[in-house]
Amino acid sequence: MTEEQRNLLDEFERKLRALLVICENQRKKIAELTSQLQEEETRTQQALEEIRSLDVKYRDLLTAHATVALYGDVKSARKQLLNMVREIDACIALLNG
Fold first, then answer.
1. CA distance 39 to 59
2. 72 in helix, strand or coil?
3. SS3 of residue 97 by DSSP
4. Is the model more confident about 68 or about 39?
5. Partner of 71 for a Cys bridge, out of 56, 61, 77, 91, CB 3.0 to 4.6 A?
6. d(CA 24, CA 14)
7. Does the pLDDT at position 44 exceed 90?
């Protein structure tokens, strides 16, 4: 093997090792980013669940306010709702009976 060939081989080995180091660094970076992505997806899902929960509570609150507005005050609204619940329970009892 000539000196020139040996120099080319050494240069090739050096560049190959540098390339392998770059590849390993990229693998680590990909693993890190994948982990971060999974964490963010989990946080996003939790946020969506919280939004859904808050939406349900908001709708319930709107319904309560509309009911109070319909019957004038909280006592009247509560009384009317209790009467409706009793009627519904009676209907269910008749259907089951």
1. 30
2. coil
3. coil
4. 39
5. 77
6. 15
7. yes
